[in-house]
Amino acid sequence: MREKILSIQNLNISFETTAGVVNAVRGVNLSVYRGETVALVGESGSGKSVSAKAIMGILAKNGTIDSGDITLSYYRQEEKVTRDILSMDKKEIRRHVNGKRIAMVFQDPMTSLNPLIPVGKQVMEGMLWHYHTPKEEAYQKALDLLKLVGITDAEKRMKNYPHQLSGGMRQRVVIAIALSCDPDLLICDEPTTALDVTIQSKILELIQEIQKRKKLSVIYITHDLGVVAKVADYVNVMYAGKIVESGTVNEVFYEPKHPYTWGLLSAMPDLGTEDERLYTIPGSPPNLLHKITGDAFAPRNKYALKIDSRVEPPMFRVSDTHYAATWLLHPKAPKVELPEELKARIDRMMKEGEHYDKTGKQ
Amino acid sequence: MTKRENSKTAPLLEVKGLKQYFRVSRKFTVKAVEDVSFYINPGETYGLVGESGSGKTTIGRSVIHLYEPTAGEILFDGMNISGRLKGETERNLRVNMQMIFQDPMACLNPRRKVGDIIAQGLDIHHRYHSAKEREELVADILHKVGLAPEHANRYPHQFSGGQRQRVGIARALIMNPKLIIADECISALDMSIQAQVVNLMKDLQQENGMAYLFIAHDLSMVKYISDRIGVLHLGHLLETGTTDEIFSHPVHPYTKSLLSAIPHPNPLAERKRKALQYDYKTSGIDYGEGTMHQVEGTHYVRCTDQEYDSWK
């Protein structure tokens, strides 16, 4: 039985800037179940980080939530509690949600650690504050956490300051801090973008392992489809403040329905081909300062229909888990096949997958 | 053009035994680059890859003579550009070698118009006779990188990230250089914009025939743009060869781990795949001991004789 722990309904967020009001998030729906991994994919400015910040109640001062619900369910002494995060004030969120129920890992570990405090103390901080854990016990727990995230010589490292650690180690410390209060949900905002590929794979495998052990739900925010393929159960593709396609990883990667997803998949550099040119999505994302009528992706979409410039497409159902917001899925729409190259690519991916299945090779 | 074709046999840039040390204090010296040799032919793209701290940016900056090399020789277009330069050599170098930087916002002066930023090289080297000619040259180059001539009157903050990087490319290109050093020039951009910039760089290369030294940590993009690749780790050039040689027959364990760490955008395979692990400290390999061994053609790997036999 899947247990829903976070649900976002019709979230709208706007920012007041000197240039005008920016509608950064326009009607996002998202559900996260216990123990599962959800990925939010999109270009910068598509609203993925803003949505995550709204969950944590840490939007910038000029941001307002115009409408929507964010509800969080958790257990308090064996009793299930469901709360609306948006109706809580800042102090309450800090006390009951941040760190304790939902923890977040940011992109740059250097900016999320305090340079003046030894890392051990920073790991203990949350436990002391939220659970009033006795100091010795907190120290022991922090030590165990550092060992859990794969830091060797943990006792010595407890006394180190952030600048004495390498980038990968710092990100491990940040993950240890995030896990220190046993949260139900971990939000990772581009956790590996600032790190090298070799360290990236280690950090991702680490999060996966901890997730299995602690039955943690994780939201990954990333623009790297390789990372998504590695870790996610469900994928939500965001464009211009909306989720345009959502489904299981296999559905989104092997049977994509939205032309933007087609573009994203085609634009990934493929190590298996010898193409001379990379596929690019023409144009650039729309400016959210201006009101968008119709489908935001239409100007860049060569499959756009006439209706796309007038009416925004709703989410069409493909299967129970797979939805996409494109008029191409309307029963009256003309049949549009996947682009040839993408089809060939998906075939290649399937073959590669089978190959791994058969040989069981590492 | 004929001159360039004649020099096809000789490499455009040759780096021989480059060492770059930085003295931090009396007791401590950072050995950023240790005995690195490579060459770039005219019109070719050489990709330098490695993790952060491997010395790839340092090499780029040494090549363009922002640092004085501790040891070694750098030959560019037949001139020796290590050590103190003569006025004429320096001028020649500043025209024929240009650089594109990582962060397009940080490398463009926010208080100058884009047109002036692009024309700065022309101004310094007196490459035009009238204001009109200057304007035409700028408009021409803007068109080449996919921007409009009226963009010349705007300021950098009025552009998006991808457009800013195009401005950076235009600035490098306007001097008609023989070599462009691109230092992580796409890592700050979005996926779909990265592809646009890489395609642009490739098109411009075909048109103008300049060579690139492409420095990056993203191997999948390097594969697209490079003819040959050099893999750096801890200041040592571990393996070098054509893109095909490196990607299909990597020899050094570090190269192998680097290649296997790239996540494939393919869930079925990616979930079963495990990246190879490599740790210099426990691997028992001493980079300083190794010498360059030829695998085949232009494919070289740095190791000792014993290691070479066991890896092959």
Tell me what the structure shows.
- The complex is a heterodimer of chains A (362) and B (312).
- By secondary structure, chain A is α/β, with parallel strands linked by helices.
- Chain A has a single domain (1-101, 183-362), classed as P-loop containing nucleotide triphosphate hydrolases (Rossmann fold, 3-Layer(aba) Sandwich).
- Chain A is 35% helix and 23% strand.
- The radius of gyration of chain A is 22 Å and the shape is globular.
- The radius of gyration of chain B is 21 Å and the shape is globular.
- The relative contact order of chain B is 0.13.
- Mean pLDDT of chain B is 87; it is low at 1-7.
- The A-B interface holds A 43-44, 167, 196-202, 204-205, 223-230, 232, 249-250, 253, 263-265, 267-271, 276-281, 284, 349-350, 352-357, 360, 362 and B 51-52, 160-162, 190-193, 195-196, 198-199, 202, 217-221, 223-224, 247, 257-258, 261-275, 277-278.
Count of all domains of chain A: 1
Query: Can you identify the CATH superfamily of chain B?
Result: P-loop containing nucleotide triphosphate hydrolases
- Largest interface, Cβ cutoff 8 Å: A-B, 49 and 41 residues
Gyration radius of chain A, to the nearest Å? 22 Å
Overall mean confidence score, pLDDT of chain B: 87
Query: What gross morphology of chain A would you assign?
Result: globular
CATH class of chain B: Alpha Beta
Strand content of chain B: 15-25%
Which CATH architecture of chain B would you pick? 3-Layer(aba) Sandwich
Low-confidence stretches of chain A: none
Distance linking N and C termini of chain B:
42 Å
Reconstruct the topology from this structure:
The complex is a heterodimer of chains A (362) and B (312).
Chain A lengths: L3 E14 L2 E14 L3 E5 L6 H9 L6 E14 L2 E6 L5 H7 L5 E4 L3 H4 L6 H13 L3 H14 L5 H5 L8 H13 L5 E5 L7 H18 L2 E6 L2 H7 L2 E6 L2 E7 H6 L4 H9 L48 E2 L5 E2 L15 H20 L3
Helix pairs in contact in A: 4-5, 4-7, 5-7, 7-8
Chain B lengths: L1 H5 L6 E11 L5 E12 L4 E5 L6 H8 L7 E6 L2 E2 L6 H10 E4 L13 H12 L5 H14 L16 H13 L5 E5 L7 H18 L2 E6 L2 H7 L2 E6 L2 E7 H6 L4 H8 L6 H4 L9 H4 L7 E6 L2 E5 L1 H7 L1
